[in-house]
Structure formats: structure tokens, C-alpha cells
Amino acid sequence: MSTPPELDRGLVIASHGRHVVVETPEGRQLICHPRGKKNQAVVGDRVLWLASTDEGSIEKVQERRNLFYRQDELRTKSFAANLDQVLILIAAEPEFSESQLARALIAAEAERITPLIVLNKSDLAELFARAWDRLEPYRRMGYTVLPLGLKAQGDSGLSALRTQLQGRSTLVLGPSGAGKSTLINRLVPGAQAQTGEISTALNSGKHTTTSTRWYWVDGAHSTALIDSPGFQEFGLQHIEAAQLAGLMPDLRTHAGECRFYNCSHLHEPGCGVIAVVDKQAGGPGISPSRYRIYGELHAELSQAPRYY
Fold first, then answer.
1. pLDDT by residue (tens digit) across 92-110?
2. Are residues 54 and 75 in the same domain?
3. Which domain holds residue 56?
4. CB neighbour list of residue 166: distance below 8 Å, 6 or more residues apart
């Protein structure tokens, strides 16, 4: 009986279509293809692969700690696996969407991934102050919220951010215009060159940007940043409406105070959540904007088709 071929271990550091780039423990990078019809591996996956000439095939995706993804009616978009935290980068200008911020936080909570909110463009003093005030409910919930000024003089928050990233694998998420590419290039010198090399390999010379990309920040390979494509929508259709309040810390704190165990927190008498919604922003209870987002998401997820 023939001996089965020995499989090598690797880390998926980039993906494009059906192809991925795998990095070996020695630092070698090579293109790998899925064994089946569908590519199940995502950036951050630890995989077992089999060599074939100068490329390889993914034989097994090892068990994940988590998977950060979004889902709408048409498709599921996986960002990355095995994350320590998700950095949600927003900016004072253009004005950020609180609904999109809330959706990203809920997706992180669902996978038990620590979120980190970073507000960029501290050099725009008036706009920044206004945006910082809008984030008060999130600081009150216990989320870490950091100021950043990538175009400002001096350090402008970069050192504090580096401390939060140290020793962790962090997905960088954010809308276009927030400064994501600038941040990656500040923290990972040569990031653009690395991306160019991989794009060339994956696309036979065509410089198509890979959708998600893993970068080592330090030589010891203990700190990693994962760049992700910008997005306009963030679907949560993998989450049931009944789960929603438990994934929003400000609502979760008071959900146990409701008269009814299956309270929707929308209209029931004796609801512990409704009782603490502020009549105006800035008070100690649940902010009106957060409660409005909850209502909108609850309605959206109640109507979402379920696929089992």
C-alpha cells in the first residue's frame, strides 16, 4: 500500500478568486488552489497543503477560532479568520455612518472578537470634536475608542494605537475615505510593494488588488494587520432578530430587567430597555440613535429569509 503524501502547514495571507497565497513557517510564499470546486480557505486560515511543482493544493483548512463575515440576501462575504481584534477605522470627514459602525460591532460580538474603534483626522478640530461626541455611547459601553491624526504633525495617536495592536492579529475595516490605506502604509513599510508582488503572481502580471491581505508588522511575526476592501453595506442576515439585543452591550445590560422573557424591546409593557432610552442624546441611558438602529435592524432581520 502506498504511503500518503506528507502535508505541509501554512498560513493563508492573501486571496483572489479561487486562488490563495500561503506562507510557510519558513517564510516562503506560494500560490495554492482548492482541492474541490469551492475555495473554503480565507485569509488567516491555518491550512495543510500539498506541493505540486511550484504551486500547491489546499488539502485541509484547520479548525478556526472565529470567522468575521457579513451576509446579505445575495451572498456571504468572509473577511478573515482567527482574529484577535477588529479595528474599525472611521473619520471625522467624511461623516461616518453610525448604522455601519453598529453592524460591524455586532458582527464582531457574534464571533467574540474584540472590537477597537479608531477615529481618524484629529487635525480637523471642529469636525473631529463633533464626531468624537457621537462616539460617547460607545465609550460608555466599554469599547476602546482611540483618536488618530494620520495627517497631523507629530505622533497624533499612532503610539497608543501601536500598543493596542502589539502581539495581536487585527483586521482593519472601514469605509473609503477613512484613511485605511494610509494607516496600513504607516504601520507596514513596503505594504504596497508586497501587495504588488502578490497581485502579479496571482494574476499573471495584471495588478488586480487582492480582496484581503495579511501583513506582518514586526520581524518576530507576533503582530499582524489584515487589510480588507472597503464596503458600502454590511449585511447581518446570518444573525437572528432575537439574538440582536444580546449582541449590543447597551441593550444587553438592561434586557434582563424586562417583564417578559421573550421581550422584543420594541413595544412590550415592563420592558427594561425601553425604560432607559434617553429622551435626548448625551444622558446616561441608551442613546436614541442606538435604539433607533436596533429597531431598524430588528425589522430587517425579522424579514430576512433563513437558509438551513
1. 999 999 999 999 999 999 9
2. no
3. 8-61
4. 222, 223
